[in-house]
């Protein structure tokens, strides 16, 4: 998360190589809608802040940029 004073809040989705994939405006959404959105996108929510993240979620939900070949080996 990066707070930018005066900027409208948005969720910026990045790929494995930190390329921007999508920007989703959040200013009109409630907390419940944002929580539902990140779950739909495949983000993992820990039960407690100190819980470890399962290995299958360490890079998830990163996905290749549109049109880029899928490279599970990277």
From TrEMBL:
Residues 49-74 are annotated as: Disordered. The lineage of its organism: Eukaryota, Metazoa, Chordata, Craniata, Vertebrata. Residues 1-43 form the Selenoprotein F/M domain. This is Selenoprotein F/M domain-containing protein. Gene3D superfamilies: Sep15/SelM thioredoxin-like domain, active-site redox motif. Transmembrane segments: none annotated. It holds the Pfam family Sep15_SelM. Belongs to the selenoprotein M/F family.
């Amino acid at each position: 998360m990066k707070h930018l004073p005066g900027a409208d809040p948005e969720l910026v989705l990045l790929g494995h190589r930190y390329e921007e994939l999508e920007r989703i405006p959040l200013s009109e959404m409630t907390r419940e809608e944002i929580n539902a959105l990140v779950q739909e996108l495949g983000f993992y929510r820990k039960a407690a802040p100190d819980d470890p993240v399962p290995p299958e979620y360490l890079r998830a939900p990163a996905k290749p940029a549109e049109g880029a070949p899928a490279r599970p080996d990277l």
